[in-house]
Design goal:
There is one protein chain. The radius of gyration is 23 Å and the shape is elongated. A hairpin with a 2-residue loop joins strand 11 and strand 12. The mean pLDDT is 87. 0% of the residues lie in helices and 42% in strands. The chain is built from no helices and 18 strands. The chain has 230 residues and is mostly beta strands. The two termini are 45 Å apart.
Length: 230
């Protein structure tokens, strides 16, 4: 930890190591992109999926356990209520979403962790293309581009294939349907969809989808408005 000078670039003092330890005094490693906030004379150091507390800004900090489910955090108060803005790997590894959650505390200052605090996203989060291609790309026989809020492409060989980026934290065992809103501007009468989902360990799931949007045609175009697992 170090103090920034008023120019917000240089330091007023040298970096000081911050000790985080368990209840037995053993030093613990922390994760990346830690954040810090103060509430009722307690300092909260939050990193990864964990947090620690201290009465002193420079520690030592006592490890308290897992924090709310989600990635890197930012905290703020609004109308007396604490909130956390968290990263979510809900779309893919490269296009990450965000969740806004209220934070509640026990009488001893520790954070209340609900049994299930995912809330959003849950199974079935859709791919929609209002702002980007969402990591989808062409594998062969077509290109991929944005067209007025939809994903689109021009076919140049039979059995063109497009595929999503690996989408994180989606266990399709909790889903029973897939819905694809697609416009076919070709002579094709069939599409083909392949779905791969993997448990990478530690309840870390990846999902990837590949689509042949217009089978057995040499030309034409296609457009996809949305894809939803339900």
């Amino acid at each position: 930890m170090a103090t920034l000078a008023p120019d917000m670039k240089t330091l007023l003092d040298g970096p000081t190591p911050i000790l985080v330890q368990d209840e037995n005094g053993k030093e613990l490693a922390t994760d990346d992109k830690s954040t810090l906030f103060k509430r009722n004379n307690w300092y909260y150091l939050v990193y990864g999926h964990s947090y620690a507390m201290s009465r002193n800004l420079y520690g030592p900090y006592s490890f308290k356990g897992n924090f709310l489910d989600g990635g890197h955090t930012s905290f703020f108060q609004w109308h007396g209520q604490w909130y956390v803005l968290q990263e979510n790997h809900d779309i893919s590894a490269f296009f990450r979403g965000a969740s806004l959650k209220p934070v509640f505390f026990n009488e001893d200052g520790t954070v209340i962790i609900p049994e299930d605090d995912r809330m959003f996203p849950g199974p079935g989060r859709p791919w929609r293309f209002e702002n980007s291609t969402m990591g989808w790309k062409a594998l062969r026989g077509t290109n991929v581009y944005m067209k007025e809020g939809v994903l689109a492409g021009n076919i140049n060989e039979p059995n063109a294939i497009i595929a999503s980026a690996p989408r994180l934290y989606t266990d399709t065992r909790n889903c029973s349907k897939i819905s694809i809103t697609i416009k076919n501007n070709s002579y094709a009468t069939r599409i083909r969809v392949a779905i791969v989902t993997r448990n990478e360990g530690g309840d870390f799931w990846t999902l990837q989808v590949a689509i042949q949007p217009a089978m057995d045609t040499y030309n034409g175009t296609w457009e996809i408005d949305e894809i939803i697992f339900k």
